[in-house]
Every structure is written in C-alpha cells, then in structure tokens.
Task: structure prediction
Amino acid sequence: MNTLKMIDRPAHRVATILAVSALALGLSACGKKEEPTVGQRLDSAVEKTEQAAADARVKAEGAMQSAETKMEQGAANAETTAKQAANNAKGMIDDATITAQISAGLAKDPDLSAVKINVDTVNGKVTLNGPAPSTVARERAETIAKAVTGVTSVNNQLVVTAS
Result:
C-alpha cells in the first residue's frame, strides 16, 4: 500500500502543478490588454484631431462674435459722444450768438451802455449785470434781451444809478 501512495503522489503533484500553472497563465492573459492596431490608432488620432478642430472653431466663432459686439458698441458710443459734442457746441454757439445780439441791441439804445452792461448767456438763460440810468432803461434792457431768438429767460440784475 505504501508503494501505491508513493506513485500516486508525484503524478498528483505534477497534475496539481500543471493545473495551477494553467490557471496562472490564464489569469495573466486576462489582465493583458490587446495592443491597438495601426488602423485603430490612426482612427483614434483622426477623431481627436477632428474634435480639437471643432472646439477651435467654436472658440473662434465666439471670439469673432465678441469682437463684433464690442466694435458695434464702440461705434454706437462714438456716435453718441459725437452727437453730444455737436449739441454742446451748438449750445455754446447759440449762447454766444444770443449774447452778441443782446449786446448789439443794447448798443443801439441811446440810454443804455453795452460796454458797462455785462450779458451772460447759459443754455438760453440770460443774466444782465451792471448799471442802468433809470428804471425805464432797466426795463427796456430786459425787453431787448427777451426779444432775441433763443432766450428762454432773463435775470435782470441791472442796478439803477442816479446820474
């Protein structure tokens, strides 16, 4: 009986070793990844390149739209600023014209002195400062100022001086 067990043991060991080796080999084969073929790698590279191109296109379109919007806003701001400057210049010219016309009207009056009366005009509002020889002359100066086109109000600060 002893002989039989001795013979069975090495065969049993060999069978066990073969089984374990086969199992280990099988498990190690499961863990390995198959290397992609050249065609698969090429397809992957093409796909990544196409995606990168699409992303770049989207970014470029967004940048172009942003630039166009900023240019349009800049143009609109420039137009608004130009209009405001033109209106301000027109207002200054109108005020200067009003002042000149009032001074000319005062110079034509024999009782009023265009040199002594200061005429200030801001946005059509006229202020008269200086001396007037009489109350009638003071009121006439205000009437002359009110008669000029573009005058919206007159602040008569003329002081009647007895001569």
User: Anything to note?
Assistant: The chain is about 70% helix and 15% strand.
